[in-house]
Fold:
Amino acid sequence: MTGMSSDYYSRTERGHSPKPSEQMVTALARGLRLSLDDRDYLFQVVGYGTAPRVRRTDHVNVGLMRVVDRLTDTPAIVLNSLGETLFQTQPGLALLGDQRTHQGLARSVIYRWFTNDAERKLYPVEEHPKHSRVLASQLREVLTREGPRSRAADIVDALQGCSTEFTEVWAEHVVGWRYSEQKILLHPELGELTVYCQSLLDPEQIQTLLVFTATPGTESHDKLQLLSVIGTQKLSPSKSASV
Structure:
């Protein structure tokens, strides 16, 4: 869960290892399911100040993590308000790919959607215009709430400088667009899946847990079950053909 070996953790706890990085402390706080106050204290104990370290929304809400802990066989993902991935279950990794590896503005799915063609391969081409407007609407909502000196504003400025599509959609002043509960996803090995995406907001409504399910007895349901078993392993032709 933390990416930290038990030996390294033991040495760190006894003070026999070098000072862990902020990223490692963040991972440890997440693995221990610490509250934000406890997380701040951990950073202070290690020797990092709490003000400049990371944004508040980078720490997964403890209540959401308790729910995620029970979803070991279900595709699920936790996002903040800018669409930055904070956590994925193993089936979530298998369904959506690892969305936690991006850096900088590319951490935001909104930014990636308008700048990286690979991001769009998960959805049918005919649905791309809708996705563009939903994401632009979400970004405008965050910008309105957080103001012109926010990270949302940085994303807007960057996209207006590099994406003609974003500039055109942004000029439409779209607001209030939302995804429907039913989605069609294009998995690189299993093909098309029709799934239902239920969302759960944290109390401050700045983080969202998305859970993907399918109707029992359908081909899409069988495919999700297969993903929960094989995880991120590559499918052999025989397995793929049998689904």
